[in-house]
Structure formats: C-alpha cells, structure tokens
Design a protein that fits this description.
This protein is of the alpha+beta class. The protein contains 2 helices and 2 strands, in the order ββαα.
Amino acid sequence: MLITKQVLYHGCYTVTRKGGNPNIKDHGFTTDRDEPLSERLNIRITKTTNEQLKELGDEKAEFCRNAINKALDERNSKGK
C-alpha cells in the first residue's frame, strides 16, 4: 500500500510519496565543468546594462561568469 500526503508547495497542493523517489539519481543534475556552479552572486546593475544583458538571452549567465573570470585573471596577473 502506497501512503501519500498532500503538501502545500508554492501555493499549490502536491502529493508526496513516502520514501521519496527511489530513482532520484537518474534525474539529478550533472556538469562537465572542472568545478560545479554551487555559489550564488547577487549584484545591482544599471537599467541600461540589464537591457543589454537581456539581449544575450540564454547566454547571459555564461557571459557574466566569463567577464568576471577575465577581470579576476587580469587583476591577478597585474599583481604578480
């Protein structure tokens, strides 16, 4: 017998399965990066900058990561 319960999640009731999903590893996230993207950064930018970034669409996050890494690499190379 499968026992379930209703849980309020983001304003909607969902049915949860006791014991969770036994096949969760089949649906997990994977990455091909050397280091996983586990940290978050929240910054304030101008409206103009935000509009320009929106034009990049799905590439926006990767563009920002690359720009930050490039600036850090330049800063570190000048310090040596």
